[in-house]
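Hi again,

Forgot to attach this to my earlier email, sorry! This is the prediction with protoporphyrin IX containing FE bound. I've pasted everything inline since the attachment limit keeps bouncing my files.
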Amino acid sequence: MELGVSGTLFLAVVLSLVLYFFTWKRNLKMKNMPPGPPPLPLLGTLLHMNTKELHTSLMKLSETYGPVFTIYMSKVPAVVLVGQDCIKEALIDNGDVFSMRGHLELSNLFTKGCGVIFTNGERWKQMRRFSITTLRNFGMGKRGIEERIQEEARYLTEEIGKIGGAPFDPTHRLNLAVANVICSVVFGERFDYEDVKLRELLTLIKKIMQLMTSIWGLLLNVFPKIFTYVPGPHQKIFSYVEKLKKFILESLESHKVTIDPNCPRDFIDCFLIKMEEEKSNPKSEFHSDNLFGTVMDLFVAGSDTTSTTLRYGLLYLLKYPDVQSKIQEEIDNVIGQNRCPSVEDRVQMPYTDAVIHDILRFADITPMGIPHATGQDITFRGYHIPKDTLVFPMLTSILKDPKSFKNPEQFDPTNFLNDDCSFRKNEAFVPFSLGKRSCIGEGLARMELFLFLTTILQRFNLKPVVDPEKIEISPQPNTSGTIPRTYQMYVTPR
Ligand code: HEM
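Structure tokens for the complex follow:
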């Protein structure tokens, strides 16, 4: 039988593909990587994953492949870790190996590989240590962080009071309040809620996040050399980042003029003082690129996370008015109406503390954490995981584990209460992750959640606009759990 040129060519292509496929699969097996769904050339294991609800589909896959398995994004492998024992064994017992971040091209493009979130090695250690120390309450001169949050909580309740009894969506006001706390900590100033600068800042962060997590952002990250020049919506990321940079640089310049080294006002002052101290060290990590990168990280990691958690929190309180009343009872007993709440009150308010813990647990806003990577080859649970492999620690598998929480799929503050109503710690409370890379803003975020919620509930009763039974508290579908459904509420003064 005569095949002809095109027939021969076709056969050659098919044969090469088959050969490529089998050699590739054999290579994978030889590597003794953790098991996983069979990958296809180019597609990897994409057909086994729902990219819009990635964490749900990965949890499903773990039912078949166990607590350690491998997925492939095209030909790039990522190891998924499920369950408290397995994640602890990796992030804590083998923390030195599992605490790296994978290479992220976007971070190079925007922050020149500087800052905290996406750095490694000495740079990461120094930026992380400095940020943690500075974010502690005593880090900045006379005005501590608690006082800044209390001030913002007052402005927020004033703003809510102005609405009267009309229904409103709390999203925007919560975003403004939380962003203002970071502005106060980083720039030393808060802005009026109508301020054009604050609104522009929030819009920029939101748009950058939206584009970075879109398919265009993904393509730019994977193929930066091509997609930097290909037209498309992702091109806007560059101009947005430039605007954000301009905003931060302007503030930097004015700080340099007004700084008093004996009395740092904010994060930028503290950083500038450190830069001055280390100016004769050519290897110092305290330079303007790291200052810019770290400030960007604080905004990106610290604004949306906290305001989304607050938004989930208010929604749960609308759904469960009895929980709201119990918090108010505690507020009346411990704080009263004549002074503002302070962090010291928290130890005397175990019920409120338990509610905030279960808001963080149940909202589960980073179900897959932030991806880690291995810093060297490792044999983990009998499998070989090579250096530079991406690792997804599935925090959701700990936060929703029926072995640790009696009603994991329901909002239930008794998860954190003893029978005598005292606060009960739980090892499985890991919304801020665990190990060397855990969230550096945990203290700040928990302070904000406590002070914002108690200040609001001290002044107002929160009311739903529909029957509480009908309120849907599960996340918006196809958002990987990160976004609550839109809702309206109204308040009445107490
Ligand atoms: C409810 C609020 C928050 C939640 C649930 C949250 C959660 C997380 C999680 C899960 C991680 C990943 C840890 C890992 O890789 O293992 C993380 C990292 C981080 N968070 Fe938060 N976070 C919150 C608020 C904040 C705030 C307020 C800030 C700072 C102002 C902040 C700054 C950071 C930074 C800089 C990192 C990277 C740490 C590193 O790579 O060493 N976060 N956060």
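DSSP finds 19 helices and eight strands in the chain. The beta strands are 68-73, 76-81, 372-373, 378-380, 383-385, 390-393, 460-464, 489-493.

That should be everything now.

G.
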